[in-house]
Write a structure and sequence with these properties.
Organism: Streptomyces virginiae (Streptomyces cinnamonensis)
Oligomer: single chain
Protein name: Fatty-acid peroxygenase
CATH class: Mainly Alpha
CATH topology: Cytochrome p450
Helix content: 40-55%
Bound molecules: protoporphyrin IX containing FE, myristic acid
Structural class: alpha+beta
Distance between the termini: 68 Å
CATH superfamily: Cytochrome P450
Largest sheet: 5 strands, mixed
Strand content: 5-15%
Keywords: Heme, Iron, Metal-binding, Monooxygenase, Oxidoreductase
InterPro entries: Cyt_P450 (IPR001128), Cyt_P450_sf (IPR036396)
Number of strands: 10
Family: Belongs to the cytochrome P450 family.
Shape: globular
Strand order of the largest sheet: 1-2-8-5-3
Length: about 425
């Protein structure tokens, strides 16, 4: 047995501190650590947290990290779903991931989704104009816009007018994954309801009692065959459909942060209005994804005994890659607390921008929805910058102790 510089027997469990401190937990530990590596326990499991470009390459080496059994049930039963692509390794992962990539990396498909979103957004703004004296909560409105648009795009019929239930359920699944209270129960119920409904839909499509547009996500998931040649059972098929629908709705978090940024730094509004090329809107979208806290870290298990900077990390250790902390590390970002959409002009900074994971989406677990996220976020940043709005008095603080977090008010605005 190799000797450990830091024997795990003395590592204390950090789960309660993580739940209490949220986004501040890992960066606080990182600051206090002499070598930029954090050793702790989560849910009793020995845990090592890493940060920086070298750590990204280390973590995304498939020989180093496996995902099977890495995510705890409370995260799977709310956020990602049991049996999700997030939990697969090797060939099983490669084959399932190819399905996502074919749907989510297709330029024409992304453009079609952008058009659905803009249509639904303009419908919503039209409704706001009917009652101009009323203010609206941007987060709730955007979640509904995105839910309706992603239903149009995936071929999944919205179960009720306005997409309100689906939007609420997707938001609940994300909102409740990292807490032990009532938000967590709401997330479990939301997932159960949506998995059951989408599972039944997949069965109806296969029995040809419902049509799925050719090439739509509903069609592709219903017909997908895994590495063993078998169709997905209805429940895992529903899980994967939700792994397209839910995160699209979750872009509402970034849109709300973008509105916060436009309010706090209004000097970007004018240039965004004149941004014919769309380059500034894209830079703004990237800077929102860097600056604001959303995914705190990603995790996997050491696939075998590993060597990290001269230290043995035993097989089975939970490895965390610190996403949020990396985005505010002054060694990687000049003035990390300055909101600067121009930092991506050369494209070089994109290398260290990992709000949706690192490495290569086709080879590893990096998010396949990143192009969609940037495209939709940039489109809605442009729409927001073009609107004349007033922002009534409200609580716009973004508590780092809450995970996931948001401006407390959800960002209330009124058309001016
Ligand atoms: C994976 C974040 C949007 C689909 C991930 C991962 C993160 C992430 C952190 C895990 C990476 C890893 O484990 O190494 C986000 C954030 C989003 C977003 C913050 C903003 C809303 C999307 C969108 C889609 C999507 C729009 C689909 C339309 C997925 C899927 C995976 C994934 C299917 C699993 C990939 C795999 O395990 O191979 N995302 N994502 N995400 N994301 Fe996203
Ligand atoms: C989505 O709905 O998929 C988009 C929002 C994702 C937030 C990502 C949170 C990552 C949580 C990782 C937990 C790792 C625990 C070991």
């Amino acid at each position: 047995m190799p000797t450990l510089k830091h024997p795990p027997s003395v590592w204390t469990d950090g789960t309660l501190s993580l739940l209490a401190q949220g986004y501040a937990w890992l960066p606080d530990h990182m600051r206090a650590s002499a070598d930029g590596t954090v050793r702790t326990r989560l849910l009793g499991r020995r845990t090592v947290a890493l940060r920086g470009p070298e750590a990204v390459a280390f973590f995304y080496d498939e020989q180093h990290v496996r995902r099977r059994a890495a995510l705890p049930d409370p995260v799977l039963d709310t956020l990602f779903g049991q049996g999700a692509v997030h939990t697969l390794d090797g060939l099983a992962h490669r084959v399932r991931k190819a399905m996502f990539l074919s749907l989510l990396k297709d330029e024409k498909g992304i453009e079609a989704l952008r058009e659905h979103v803009l249509l639904r957004w303009r419908e919503a703004v039209g409704r706001w104009r009917e009652e101009p004296e009323e203010s609206v909560v941007l987060f709730d409105e955007t979640a509904r816009v995105l839910a309706l648009a992603v239903c149009d795009w995936t071929g999944v019929p919205a179960t009720e007018p306005g997409g309100a239930q689906l939007a609420r359920d997707c938001v609940a699944m994300v909102d409740g994954f990292a807490t032990a209270g009532p938000r967590h129960l709401r997330a479990r119920h939301a997932r159960k309801r949506q998995e059951e409904a989408l599972g039944r839909l997949v069965v109806r499509v296969r029995e040809q009692r419902e049509t799925a547009p050719d090439g739509s996500a509903l069609d592709v998931v219903a017909r997908h065959r895994d590495a063993d040649g078998a169709l997905l059972d209805p429940r895992p098929a529903a899980v994967e459909l939700l792994n397209i629908i839910r995160p699209t709705v979750a872009i509402a978090w970034f849109v709300t942060f973008a509105a916060h940024a436009l309010h706090r730094w209004p000097e970007h509004r004018g240039p965004l209005r004149g941004d014919v090329s769309g380059h500034l809107a894209t830079g703004f979208a990237h800077e929102v994804r860097r600056f604001y806290p959303f995914a705190p870290f990603v995790g996997g298990l050491a696939a075998r005994d590993l060597q990290w900077r001269g230290e043995t990390v035993p097989e089975g250790t939970l490895l965390l890659l610190d996403l949020y902390g990396q985005h505010h590390d002054p060694r990687l970002w000049a003035h990390p607390y300055r909101f600067d959409p121009h930092r991506y002009a050369t494209g070089e900074s994109l290398r260290d921008l990992i709000p949706q994971g690192g490495g290569d989406a086709a080879e590893g677990h990096r998010c396949p929805g990143e192009d969609i996220t940037v495209t939709l976020l940039a489109a809605l940043v442009t729409e927001l910058a073009g609107l004349d709005v007033s922002v009534p008095d409200q609580d716009l603080t973004i508590p780092l102790s809450r995970m996931p977090t948001l401006p407390r008010s959800g960002f209330r605005l009124r058309l001016a």
